[in-house]
Amino acid sequence: MEFDDSLSTSMGDFGEQSQDLEIPESLPMMAVRDVVVFNYMIIPLFVGRPGSIEAVNDGLSNNKLLMLVTQKDPTKDDPEPKDIYQVGMVSMIMRTLKLPDGRLKVLVQALSKAKIRSFLQMKPFYRVAIDLIEEPETSEVTVETEALMRSVREQTEKIMSLRGLLSSDLMMIINNIEEPGRLADLVGSNLRLKIAESQKILETIDPTERLRLVADLLHKELEVSTVQAKIQSDAKEEMSRSQREYFLREQIQALKRELGDEDGYSQEIDELRKQLKKKKMPKYAKKEARKQLRRLEMMHPDASEATIVRTYLDWFLDLPWRQSSTDMLDLKVAAEVLDEDHYGLDRIKERILEYLSVRKLNADTKGPIICFSGPPGVGKTSLGQAIAKAMGRKFYRLSLGGMRDEAEIRGHRRTYIGAMPGRILQGLKNVGTNNPVFMMDEVDKIGDDYRGDPSSALLEVLDPEQNNTFSDHYMNLPFDLSKVMFITTANRTDTIPGPLLDRMEVIQLSGYTLEEKMVIANKFLLPRQIKESGIKAGQIKLDDATLEIIISKYTHEAGVRNLERSLGKVCRKIARKVAEGGRGSYSVSAKTIEKYLGPPKYLPESDLDTSSQPGLVIGLAWTEVGGELLHIETSVLPGKGKLLLTGQLGEVMKESAQAALSYCRSRNQVLGVEPEYFDSVDIHIHVPAGAIPKDGPSAGITMATALFSAISGKAVKRGIAMTGEVTLRGRVLPIGGLKDKALAALRVGIAKVIIPEENQKDLVEIPEELRKKITFFPVKHMDEVIELTLGKVPKHKTPAQPMGEEE
C-alpha cells in the first residue's frame, strides 16, 4: 500500500453531515502503513493487498464505512492483531477507482475515532467490533488554551515556511479553526511525524492535552527544521560561491587565451595530466591520482589545500610503482664483483649467488630478508653495497639506530601540517626503482616511546607474505615491496624483538684472523688511505712484518676499522713530509713504526707478566664487539665461609660462581681439604677490568678452575684459555660465539683452548688456517678441565660428592 505526499485538508461541511450517520458496532477493518489517519481527514489510499481489497469491497456493499488502523511495522504484508494499533478511525469510502495493475485507488474521509474491542473475523479480511470514542466538548476556551492555539498556529507557519510548503489556503483553514482538538488533529496530520508520535496524538482524548502534545512536538520540529534550513542555506551559498569562482576563472582563462597570455596554473594542470597519463602505476593508484587532479583543478591556486594536493600528486609521480632495474644474472660476473670488493665472507657470498640463481630460474621470486649480525668494523654495511653492485641494483641505506617514532616507517597522515611519507617510500623515491637493495642499519638499536614502536611497524615491511600490500599513512594506498631485497645489520640479536627476528634470515659475521686482516689491509685499506692522503703508492713502503705489528700491537678488534685509522695516520704523516718538500720513498718498519703511531697500545699475552700463579685463569668471553679475554683472579683468605664477587658481575656470572664453588666443595677430598675447610675461609673472585659490566654463563668452568687452583695451591698451565658453562654436578654445557672467542685467543698468542664437547660441531665454521694454529680440547665434565689445566685428578667417589656419574 502506498500513499501520496499531498497535504490532507479538512472538509468541514461534509464532516458535520457525517456526524448524523449511524455507525454500526462491527465494521470491516483495513490496516494502513506509514500514515496515521486523523479526524476529518480526507486522504487517497492505494490498496493492493488481497485482504484489504476484500475489506474495501465489503464496506462498499454495505454502508461504505471502513475501520482504518495503522500497523506498527510497515514492512509486514500480513499483519496479525498484535502488529496493529488498537485505536483508529471509522472512515467513509467517498470514491474508488480500479487501476490497470489490479490495485484500487480509494478516497476516504475519517468520521469518528474508535477503539477495537475484539476481532470477529480474520479471513479473508478483518472484521472487528468497535467502541466509538466520543470527543469531549470544549464548553469554553480559556486564556491558556487560546495562548496554546496561537503558539501552535505561529510555529506551524514557521515550519511550513522553512520547508517551503507554506500556502495561504492552508493557513486560512488553520486560522479559522476555533476548536483545540480539531486544530491539534489538523496540524498533527501535516507534521511528518514518526508513526509512534502521530499515534500518541491520536490516542490522546482530551483536546487541550492533545494540543499541548502537538505544541511540544512542534517546538522540537521547529528546532530541527531551523538547523536543517541553515545547513541547506550554507551549502547552497558555498556551492554558489564555488560555482561563481569557477565560472569567473574559466572566463579569465578564456580571455587570457584570446590575448595569448595563458597563466602557468592551467599549464601546470595540463602538464600533470600528461605525466599521469604516461606514468606506469596500478589502476587503483591512477584512479586516486586522477581524482586528486580533478580536485586540484577546481581549487584556487592560492588556496592552502591546493599545495597539499599538489604535493600529494608529486608523490604519485615520483614513486616507482612499476619501475624496476634489470638484475645482472651472470653468476660468474656477480661472484667476481663480490670477490673484488670483499675478502672472505664465503657464506654470505654463497647466499647471494643462490638468490641470483633462483631469480634466474624464477623471475617472480620474492626478495629475501637477510640480517647480518656481527661486531663493528667487519664490513656489514659495505657488504650491502657490494651486493647491490653485484646484482646491478640501486642501493639505499637507512639507519634505524635510536629511531623512536612509528611515523618514520609508516609516514604521517595528510591531515597533519608538514606530513610526508615514511622513510621506506622516501628511499624508494630517491633510488627511482621498486627493487633496490635496501639496507637497514642498526636494527638492534631501535627504541620505542609514546609515539609508537617502529619495530612493530617493521613487521609488515620485513614480512614477504605482507609487504606486497604495504600501506603508508601518507599515501594511504597499497605499495608492493615484495621485489625489494631488504638487508638489516645488527651487532647482536638478543635485543631484536622476537617476532621481528623471526622474519629475518640471520647470517653471523665473525671477526677476521690476522692473515685475513693483512690481506684486507694490503688489498683494500692501504690503497684507499694512500689515495685519500694524496700521496703516491711508490712514496710509502710497508712490509708484512710491520703490518703484523700494527695489527697485533696497535689494534684490538674483531673488525678492521681501527686498523684503517692506524694506516690512515701513517699515510698522513708521510703526506706531511711530502708536502713539506720531501722526496723519495718512505719506509715504515718495525724500528720506525713508533715514530708514526707512538708506543704500542696492546701487548700480546706472551709479552705480559703471566707467571703461573695459583688462582689465575684466562677465560674467553663474547661481546658485541667480538671475542675478548677474561682474566679471573681468585684468592682464599681466612674468614667465615663468605664468597666475595667483584668486577661488576651480572646475575648470571654470580650464579656461575656459586655453582663453581659448590662443585669444588663436592671435590674436597681431591683438593685434600676437610669439609669444614670452606667454613673457615673467605673466597674472593675478581674479574678485571672492574669498570666494565660483565655477564653470561660461559665463564663457569673458568671460575671453577680458578677456585680449584687457588684452594689446591697449584698454578694453571700457561698458554691455556677456556670457555664453557658448568653445572653443580660438574657437567660442561655448550656456549655461543666460538669463532670470535678463538680469534680473541689467537690475537694474544694462546694456542690451546678448552671448549665444551657439544661445541665440536661449530668448529667447521672456523677457517682451516685458524684451526691449524689452535688446539681445541673438547670436554664434557669439569674433572677433564682440571686434569688438562692442573694435572692428573684421582677418580673416586665420597659421601661428600653426590655426583650422578663418573668419568
Tally the helices: 27
What is the overall pLDDT average? 82
DSSP strand content: 15-25%
Q: How many beta-strand segments?
A: 25
User: What are the segments in which pLDDT stays under 50 over at least 5 consecutive residues?
Assistant: 1-18, 606-611, 794-807
Order of strands across the main sheet:
19-20-18-17-21-24-25
Q: Judging from the principal axes of the Cα atoms, what is the shape?
A: elongated
Sheet with the most strands, sense and barrel status: 7 strands, mixed
| Distance, first to last CA | 99 Å
Coarse structural class? alpha/beta
Estimated radius of gyration: 48 Å
Percent range of helical residues: 40-55%
Descriptive overview:
With 807 residues, the protein is of the alpha/beta class. It is 43% helix and 17% strand. The chain is built from 27 helices and 25 strands. Strands 19-20-18-17-21-24-25 form a 7-stranded mixed sheet. A hairpin with a 5-residue loop joins strand 5 and strand 6. Helix 8 packs antiparallel against helix 9, helix 11 runs antiparallel to helix 12 and helix 24 crosses helix 27. The protein is elongated, with a radius of gyration of 48 Å. The relative contact order is 0.05.
